[in-house]
TrEMBL record:
Swiss-Prot/TrEMBL keywords: DNA damage, DNA repair
Ranges of residues in domain DNA mismatch repair protein S5: 225-343
Keyword Cell inner membrane belongs to the record: no
Origin superkingdom: Bacteria
The protein, known as: DNA mismatch repair protein MutL
Provenance organism: Halochromatium salexigens
Length: 352
């Protein structure tokens, strides 16, 4: 099983940022309102994620690190309509197979927490009692310590940290209702307060259906958007909120006119999940091309909401690819929405 887990891990855990991603997704799925991340050596030495979510009960702790055990779906039907960020039950066992993992968690209503340690070998020791508030702390140490070949593929600390920062930016953009605090080697990287307006939307753990407002749009031009993407983006960005046929597109799009490299200013979420998708980028590029006569570096933060049954997220273990049931319809909707907004043009969002 160790070898099998390591192979599975190869698809899910490429670098420290992939660990952070999986842990943050778990915290969000658990309904966390405050998430704290501590990193050492860009996460290679240590990653700790603490949340105030639902916690894991004693009886489920061992399951949590067992392959293919997920509490999030229980039938094939659920898989058709995945609403949580996780659903494959692969992340924790994969991480445990390539690093030292410690899980401390206390469930709602439990008198204290429980600690479980694994070093990826097949023997698991019984959980022991531990002091912990309701919620979960996961600590991952010495990533790839037993797989030198993988360790060699890691880039410099600076590059790995860059990946993590970009990841946090994405997750924090999608969830303005959650506070994120991130430290690296004891120094603060992010301290993002929860946006009161976004919180009041009471976004469920599960990404909401098309009728709900995306937390992206709460606290219009909010502090978080500015902190994460810069004042120039916020000043130029046009607010989008379009709805048609069970699809809703919300967010911000800007004409690319600032000097800063735009390569990292393209964020697209589907039901709150960051995706990279050819159909999406094609629709966006086409809209820019049509209106502005060029499609260099479009800058956008967009969240598409639709019925989870209309989109398959189980395409790749890293869950960054999606397949739309009605690809054509989605493409046309995106194109039309962006086209209209870009063409209306220059009412900067802060004047609305
Ligand atoms: P998945 O997220 O696909 O279900 P994971 O391997 O990421 O699989 O996690 C396994 C299980 O452990 C989850 O289904 C969940 O029940 C539990 N779990 C993991 N992290 C947390 C957390 N931070 N809070 C509460 N439960 C968690
Ligand atoms: Mg998960």
């Amino acid at each position: 099983p160790l070898l099998i887990n390591q192979i599975a891990a190869g698809e899910v855990i490429e670098r420290p940022a992939s660990v952070v991603k999986e842990l943050l997704e778990n915290s969000l799925d658990a309904g966390a309102r405050v998430i704290q991340v501590e990193l050492e050596q860009a996460g290679i030495k240590r990653i700790q994620v603490r949340d105030d979510g639902d916690g894991i009960g004693h009886e489920d702790l061992i399951l949590a690190v067992s392959p293919h055990a997920t509490s999030k779906i229980s039938s094939l039907e659920d898989l058709e309509a995945v609403a949580s960020l996780g659903f494959r039950g692969e992340a924790l066992p994969s991480i445990a197979s390539v690093a030292r993992l410690e899980l401390i968690s206390r469930a709602q209503g439990a008198e204290h927490g429980w600690r479980l340690r694994t070093d990826g070998t097949d023997t698991l020791e019984a959980p022991e009692p531990a002091a912990h508030p309701v919620g979960t702390s996961v600590e991952v140490r010495d990533l790839f310590y037993r797989i030198p070949a993988r360790r060699k593929f890691l880039r410099t600390e600076r590059t790995e940290l860059g990946h993590i920062e970009q990841l946090i930016r994405r997750m924090a953009l999608a969830r303005a209702d959650v506070a994120f605090r991130v430290q690296h080697n004891g120094r603060e990287l992010f301290d993002l307060r929860a946006d009161a307006e976004a919180s009041s939307l009471s976004v469920a753990t599960a990404p909401s259906p098309a009728t709900e407002t995306s937390p992206l749009l709460a606290g219009a031009c909010g502090e978080r958007l500015e902190t994460l993407l810069g004042a120039a983006f916020v000043q130029q960005a046009l607010r989008i909120d379009e709805q048609a046929e069970g699809l809703r597109l919300s967010g911000w799009v800007a004409r690319p006119a600032f000097s800063r490299s735009q390569a990292d200013l393209q964020f697209f979420f589907v039901n709150g999940r960051m995706v990279r998708d050819k159909l999406v980028s094609h629709a966006v590029r086409q809209a820019f091309q049509d209106v502005l006569h060029h499609a260099r570096h479009p800058a956008y933060v967009l969240d598409l909401r639709l019925d989870p049954r209309q989109v398959d997220v189980n395409v790749h273990p890293a869950k960054q690819e999606v397949r739309f049931r009605e690809g054509r319809q989605v493409h046309d909707f995106l194109f039309r929405s962006l086209h209209r907004r870009l063409a209306e043009g220059a009412t900067p969002s802060h004047e609305q």
